[in-house]
Design goal:
174 residues; globular; mainly alpha; 2 strands; 8 helices
Length: 174
């Protein structure tokens, strides 16, 4: 498989993220963890996943630092899987994916929605720029370009991508 991956994909943050969470079961396990599931049998019952697949996925999530495995019982020893800070930081990604899926459905077809816990009102998640508050779904207003650590391959990929001059002549401001 590595031979089929382009050099710039090996350093791309999207490619690296997909390596960690792009597998079908991984996102579903994380979703269950966000809903409070911590035990092997809870994940297995919720997902209908085989023991061997669940064991493999949980081991990977622990090895990658997204879940922490810790004992909750000593006789016999049983472990639970708890989200780490790194794992919890993926929640907005899972929320955005679910919101994207729901946006393609009529409201009466949605089997799961996100609500405000205090008011019970349905919310519409969007991804915004932290500084400006502007939505990031406009691919003409927001573009990728090579970052400071980019290899030559990545710089070549984005060679024609230059930020437009913004107000007062500052590049990239808008």
């Amino acid at each position: 498989m590595p031979g089929r991956i382009r050099l710039e994909d090996r350093e791309c943050p999207l490619s690296k993220t997909v390596q960690h969470v792009g597998e079908w079961w991984t996102l579903l396990i994380l979703h269950d963890a966000f809903d409070g599931y911590t035990r092997f049998d809870q994940f297995q019952e919720s997902l209908g996943i085989s023991s061997s697949m669940l064991t493999a996925r949980l081991k990977t999530l622990v090895a990658e630092g997204l879940l922490e495995r810790r004992p909750y019982q000593t006789q016999p020893v049983r472990h639970e899987y708890v989200l780490t800070e790194l794992g919890r930081s993926l929640r907005p990604v899972v929320v955005a994916l679910a919101a994207w899926g729901n946006s393609r459905l009529a409201p009466e077809q949605r089997s799961m929605i996100l609500i405000d816990a205090a008011s019970g009102e349905e919310v519409e998640p969007v991804v915004v720029d932290a500084r400006s508050g502007r939505r990031l779904d406009d691919s003409e207003a927001y573009i990728f370009t090579a970052g400071p650590a980019a290899s030559d391959a990545m710089r070549n990929r984005y060679a024609d991508t230059k930020p437009a001059a913004g107000p007062a002549g500052t590049a990239g401001s808008s």
